[in-house]
Amino acid sequence: MKILVIDDNENITKLLERFLKLKDHECVAVTDAKNALALLEKSKFDATILDLAMPGFTGIDFLESLKTNGNISQNKVVVLTASNISEEEEKQIIAMGVRAVLRKPMKLDSLMDVLVS
């Protein structure tokens, strides 16, 4: 599986990149959601792991851009967040076309379960 990881925390992107490669997946990690949109225009990914809370262009901005461009249904997006979001906000994110919302810290096996389902 080819997976795009988007998180402004380089420690998290490096951890996820190592973990996914150990699980025999191809992984591209970026720390900027605008750069990630450009990557999605050029390359096809099987899944995207997205942090919500990023400076400037947030995870929500990224999702809205995908939705506006009509590309959200073509992307299996899994949101990771350490933010305190309400159940209603989580439902709204899922309604945008996101596969799942996982809260940090989470077990990496839980992430894998969502990615391969």
Question: Which characteristics define this entry?
Answer:
117 residues, 5 helices, alpha/beta, 5-stranded parallel β-sheet, Rossmann fold
CATH topology category name: Rossmann fold
Give the count of helical stretches: 5
CATH architecture, by name, is 3-Layer(aba) Sandwich
Q: Provide the gyration radius in Å.
A: 13 Å
Shape: globular
Question: So what's the CATH class?
Answer: Alpha Beta
What structural class do you assign from the helix and strand content?
alpha/beta
Unreliable residue runs: none
The pLDDT mean sits at 93
Sheet of most strands: 5 strands, parallel
Tell me the series of helices and strands, N- to C-terminal.
Answer: EHEHEHEHEH
Total beta-strand segments? 5
Short description:
Helix content is 44%, strand content 21%. It has 117 residues and is α/β, with parallel strands linked by helices.
